[in-house]
Amino acid sequence: LAADAPIYGINTGFGMLANVRIPDDQLVALQENLILSHCAGIGRYLEDRDVYTGDAYATGEAGERRTIHLGVDVLLPPGAIVAAPFDAVVVGVEDRARPRDYGPVVLLEHATPDGMPFFTLFGHLARACIGDRSVGERLCAGGEVGRIGNRDENGGWAPHLHFQLLVSHLGQGTAVHGVAPRSQLDRWRTISPDPN
Length: 196
Known about the structure:
Elements: E1 7-9, H1 24-36, E2 40-43, E3 66-69, E4 72-75, E5 81-83, E6 88-96, E7 103-111, E8 117-123, H2 128-132, E9 138-139, E10 144-147, E11 160-166, E12 179-181, H3 185-191
């Protein structure tokens, strides 16, 4: 990616299109074209998105859905290497293959210098990483977590990395939510703080 490459928000707007609702299939095509055009696409922390339409995003409360994004998305080409940000132990590896889920996902545990554990979640990876990683495996900072998956294997999304910081995975492992309902936002902000 060139240093002067444009950076676009991948969900809430593309310049003059910021207030235009783009159908999901067209949005995915637009996101994939950004990758091919060597532009960067970013999906931001706490973005309120209307793309979460499946039953998995219903909350059980009348009219409420999980729409607040709890991680950061980075559009990357399929096959791009994803590296561990810190020394880590793999605590979860799964292919969450349902449409609009994470697809292949890896959950890492890290520790602060004073020993406090925290976690990073990497979603929408290539299926090959499921066989390459195993629970209990140690990774050094900069070590390969996996590679970006294509739309056919990553839950049906344009190729990108979902990166999420967690102080706890609530015992849910790789099933921990990456999208929260607005009514629970204060709670989720403490569980999944801003990774920036």
